[in-house]
Amino acid sequence: xxxxxxxxxxxxxxxxxxxxxxxxxxxxxxxxxxxxxxxxxxxxxxxxxxxxxxxxxxxxxxxxxxxxxxxxxxxxxxxxxxxxxxxxxxxxxxxxxxxxxxxxxxxxxxxxxxxxxxxxxxxxxxxxxxxxxxxxxxxxxxxxxxxxxxxxxxxxxxxxxxxxxxxxxxxxxxxxxxxxxxxxxxxxxxxxxxxxxxxxxxxxxxxxxxxxxxxxxxxxxxxxxxxxxxxxxxxxxxxxxxxxxxxxxxxxxxxxxxxxxxxxxxxxxxxxxxxxxxxxxxxxxxxxxxxxxxxxxxxxxxxxxxxxxxxxxxxxxxxxxxxxxxxxxxxxxxxxxxxxxxxxxxxxxxxxxxxxxxxxxxxxxxxxxxxxxxxxxxxxxxxxx
Length: 385
Prior knowledge:
By secondary structure, this protein is mainly alpha-helical. It is 47% helix and 6% strand. The chain has helices at residues 34-53, 61-72, 78-90, 105-116, 121-140, 169-179, 184-196, 200-204, 235-241, 254-257, 267-277, 284-297, 302-309, 314-320, 325-338, 360-369; strands at 4-7, 14-20, 23-28, 211-212, 217-218, 231-232. It has a 3-stranded antiparallel β-sheet with strand order 1-2-3, with helices on one face. A hairpin with a 6-residue loop joins β1 (4-7) and β2. The longest helix has 20 residues, at 34-53. The chain is elongated and about 85 Å long.
């Protein structure tokens, strides 16, 4: 309904009330006949709508989502496009047929409650982000002045996120190689994610011509944020790629490099490797988080990690980093030694932390060499990739 018609107290005349672009309007129709009052209220609403919208017709939420997909779909990531399309197709509830300027805070809160009946709070927050994306697109197109609702994100309980333990890297990649024997390009792509911190789509689209062999750097030519920052290529990955070196083309394309892998291509192999190694939660995204965390643990400044991760904000980079309690425990021991407390009991390291203080170059090199056990005559733990 575009407006609300009512009588105030014992007054004979009808009043109307409506809200457009966050502005509330209430006036008297000066009519005692409801039919005539309806005409007056509708005319007032239409005039206010025209004034607010510069004479343009305000589209419905569903129509605006479709326009966003038509305009932005070809230039957005496949995952982003799929997210908007799925939300618009399945989760607009009663909002889809409403003009954008008529969607109120109450409308959005009630629709979110419907979403929460079958989805978790984190999903409801993502749903709200999609709604804001479409509404902001309408603002940008000057179809509405501002988002007409104000709904806060829900507080979500944070959960510990997985990273690939150093001690399990070699075994995990051996399992990946085992399950991808029919298509080794998948294993190559997963190594690109681990060694360069690439997103799954970036690994699928990685090209030989973007690899500088002389400087041992790789500059992604197609990225989520359109950045072109060179990333150092570790020696183990150079050796891994060298036998397959080409002048141009996909590094990890299927069918001999002729075709790019579709979204989600690496998840099956990773899931199998997780089951084989009794590890939970390693996905392409968490492999990227592993890359960032390992750099941080080796003392790489956050600004440098931000650059190689191609993040616009250091806060985004910080969200990728997991805490290593063993590193904190070692730092506490070092401090105790410096202040003269080192002769007593050392601070106990975390028994639940699966990562080990192993040199990054060592575990990277071991994966290339295919070693997963102890070297003869060495008491060091088995290195991983």
